[in-house]
Amino acid sequence: MTTALIDTSKRLREILDRLSSMSIEDYYNPYQMFDWPDSLPQDMWWMSPELTTAHGTEIAAELSQEQLYRLSKYESINFYSLNVHGIRELLIEVTGRIHTDEFATPSEFFHHFIGEENEHMWFFAQFCLRYGGKIYKQPRGGAETIPPNNAASLLVFARILIFEELVDHFNSTMALDERLDDTIRKINRIHHQDESRHIAFGRELVRILFEGFREHATPEDLTQVSDYLKRYMAYSFESLFSPQVYKDAGIPNPLEVRRRLLTGPRRPEFEAQVFRKTHSFLTKHGLIQAEAAAPEGVR
Ligand SMILES: [Fe+2]
Ligand SMILES: [Fe+2]
Which of 24, 70, 143, 179 is deepest in the core (most CB within 10 A)? Predict the structure, then answer.
């Protein structure tokens, strides 16, 4: 069973030991880490333009440079707000499992994980409140009823992994983007460093939890898990497209803009970039199943 697999995996234990040691060695004081200037320049990119939802679309072509900068500012505030909400939810789930029988083995690592995520939530919230004047509300949906029953922990950690990998795609790009202000690059760099450990752990744990689940799963159970994870990925991606952001950026018809972007030609390419690594990991280990090819004539 799953518990036994977590407890007996030599590979997991080695990973946990290595990552816990790294957490201790790399430990920093987040409350002293940032300078937090009073304001950030408005006439520049706040987010790499390629990561903004309108990039390369007819909607972006209609905007002035000033509007594009403004859009990148509010998209960045939305991105950090999504982090705040995502972290609150994952903290609830991980805190609910630390030092339980099932998760005794990773509990030491969970202490680092919980501590680091609390700090990430703090610096993301600081950024939103200082430079955006608010934290955007959490979009609805995303964690609807979990099928099947015995997959609860598997799906929780798979969701955490998907969320962390999505965020890391943005962090790792922005950490290196010289068009961005130093404060923005730094927050992304620091988060990326910590998340590299969380993602390494998440991949191993999800692999083991899925191995345990698969032993007793029916083909229908496996399809349900696959469909659930695909829905969660689509929901996470779509949460980057916020009507409130378009409104704050001064773009007319925000709901229509969102609809056009989500149904437009750039979406599939952008979504594939964001989830390139995640998708190949989940497919390789059988958590998500390849789409059945449409019959000839339907394509
Ligand atoms: Fe984090
Ligand atoms: Fe994390």
Answer: 70
51 Cβ contact list (under 8 Å, min separation 6): 75, 170, 173, 174
Between the CA of 293 and the centroid of ligand 1 the distance, in Å, is 37
Burial (CB count within 10 angstroms: exposed 0-12, middle 13-18, buried 19+), residue 22? middle
Tokens of 261: 């972007």
pLDDT tens digit sequence for 4-26? 788 889 999 999 999 999 999 99
What's residue 192's pLDDT?
98
Q: What kind and span of H or E run contains 219?
A: helix 219-238
Stretch among 62-66, 286-290, 291-295 having the lowest mean pLDDT: 291-295
Integer Cα distance of 113 and 115 in angstroms: 6
Q: Write the pLDDT tens digit of every residue in 27-49.
A: 999 999 999 999 999 999 999 99
Cα–Cα distance for residue pair 231/249, rounded to 1 Å: 28
For 94, the enclosing helix (H) or strand (E) is helix 65-95
**Ligand 2: centre distance to CA 226 (Å):** 23
* Burial of 295 per CB tally in 10 Å (0-12, 13-18, 19+): exposed
Cα atoms found within 13 Å of the Cα of residue 21, Cβ hemisphere only: 5
Cα 161 to ligand 2 centre (Å) = 8
The DSSP secondary-structure symbol of 151 reads: G
Closest CA to 78 of 247, 212, 262: 247
| DSSP-derived secondary structure letter, 102 | T
Who surrounds ion ligand 2 at CB < 5 A? 164, 195, 198
106/19 Cα distance (integer angstroms): 11
Q: What integer pLDDT is reported at residue 240 of this predicted model?
A: 98
